[in-house]
Amino acid sequence: MSEIYPTKKPYRARRTPDRAHYDHATIHGILDQGLVAHMGYVGGAGEPQVIPIFYARRGEELLFHASSKSGLGLAAKKGVEMCATVTLIDSIVYARSGFHHSMKFRSVAAHGPTEIVTGEEKLAALDFMIDRLEPGRSAHLRPMSSQEIKATYVVRLMLNQVTAKVSVGDAPNEEPEDLTWPVWAGIVPIDTVFGVPRQHEPSLSDAGRPGLTGPLFAK
C-alpha cells in the first residue's frame, strides 16, 4: 500500500473531498506526468504572485530554477511559503445544461516554505532537471559558466503538505429532466503528445553556437 502524506487540515480538500488523494503513488504519478507548475506566493510588497515554471520531482522534493534577481528567486531566498499547483486536463465534459459543463482532471497542490539549493547539490539539481526532459542529456551539454551558475537559483519545495484531486468518469452529471433536451452531450478526451523533433541548423546569426546533440537529437 502506498504511503500517505501527513497533510494538515488547512491544506486538505474541503470541497468534493471524495476526489481527494493523499497517497504517494497518486501524487507522484501526476507530478511526474506534468511539466509546468504554477507557483503562488506573496511578494515583497504584499502583492499576490502566481508564476508558471518548469519543475522536476526528485524523491520528496520539487525543484525549480529561477533568476537570482527575479521575484520568485528573491522570495525563495527568504524562505517564503509557496503553493505549487500542477494540473492535467484529461477531457472536457459537455452537458445539456451550462451548469453541468465541467472537465475531468488530475491536480496536485503542494504547500510549504522554499529554500535555495547550493554547492554541489545545486549543480546536481540543474543536471537532474535537464535530464528530466531527456535522460542523460546533461552529460552532452556545454558546462554552465560560473556567471550562469551565479545568476540561477535552484529552489526546493519539500513534499509534505500535499493534496491531489482527481475527477474521473465517462459521463456528464445531469438532471433527469435534462436527458431529453435536444443537444449533444458527452466527453471530449484531451491528449498531450510530443511532436517530431526539429533539428536546429545554425545560421550566420548563430555563430559560435553548436547544434543539438545527444541521443534524442543525433542525426
Topology:
Blueprint: E1 20-21, H1 24-33, E2 36-42, E3 48-54, E4 56-58, E5 61-67, H2 71-77, E6 81-94, E7 102-117, H3 119-133, H4 146-151, E8 152-158, E9 161-166, E10 186-189
Description:
The chain is an alpha+beta fold and 219 residues long. The chain has a single domain (9-206), classed as Roll (Pnp Oxidase, Chain A). The chain is 17% helix and 33% strand. The protein contains four helices and ten strands, in the order βαββββαββααβββ. Strands 1, 2, 3, 4, 5, 6, 7, 8, 9 and 10 form a ten-stranded antiparallel sheet that branches. Strand 2 (36-42) and strand 3 form a beta hairpin. The protein is globular, with a radius of gyration of 21 Å.
- CATH top-level class: Mainly Beta
The poorly predicted ranges are: 211-219
Q: Major β-sheet, in short?
A: 10 strands, antiparallel
Judging from the principal axes of the Cα atoms, what is the shape?
A: globular
Number of domain units = 1
What is the annotated CATH architecture?
A: Roll
Mean pLDDT value? 90
The helix count comes to 4
Distance between the termini: 44 Å
Characteristics:
10-stranded antiparallel beta sheet; disordered C terminus; single chain; 219 residues; alpha+beta; Pnp Oxidase, Chain A
Give a brief description.
This protein has 219 residues and is α+β, with helices and mostly antiparallel strands. The protein is 17% helix and 33% strand. The longest helix has 15 residues, at 119-133.
